[in-house]
Amino acid sequence: SKGKVPTVIMLKKRNFNLASRCVLCLKEEESIDHLFVHCHWVSTLWFLALSLMGISWVQPSNVKDVLVAWRRRLKKCWVYGIWRLIPLAIWWCIWKERNRRIFEGKALSLQNFKLSFLGLLYIW
Fold it and tell me: Where do transmembrane segments lie in this chain (predicted)?
């Protein structure tokens, strides 16, 4: 990401005047690592995906480490095609929900959020 994802923290560094709280959990400051790795909403999707695959996992501390660990696990995964799509689908769903809340003032329930993730995996 190298500071290119327009999270609230990155936009504030560029002198945008915004609230810095994550629009999903409303608890933590919105950073790249929080939004894509640590937020309760994204953790729910990681847990769901890994449970469906029958894999236990200790969540890495940042996006880069997620990708490294995911790639390492990829070689051992029995469902290669789905495995490589999971991080992309999770991050796409998070980004869409974040933007839905910011720009449309609408929000999915956590249950519908999980269903949208599963639906996305299915159509991809």
Answer: 35-58, 78-95
DSSP H stretches of helix in the chain: 8-13, 32-33, 40-53, 63-74, 80-99, 110-123
pLDDT tens-digit series, residues 61-115? 999 999 888 887 766 655 667 888 899 999 999 999 999 998 899 999 999 999 9
Of 83, 85, 90, residue with least CA distance to 116: 90
Q: Do 95 and 103 contact (CB within 8 A), yes or no? A: no
DSSP bridge partners of 21 = 29
Give the type of residue at 114: K
- Render 57-74 in DSSP notation, one character per residue: -PPPSSHHHHHHHHHHHH
Whole-Å CA distances, 87 to 12, 24, 68? 26, 18, 12
Using one digit for the tens of pLDDT, what is the confidence trace for 14-60?
A: 666 566 789 999 999 989 999 999 999 999 999 999 998 888 888 89
**Nearest alpha carbon to residue 26 among 8, 11, 13:** 8
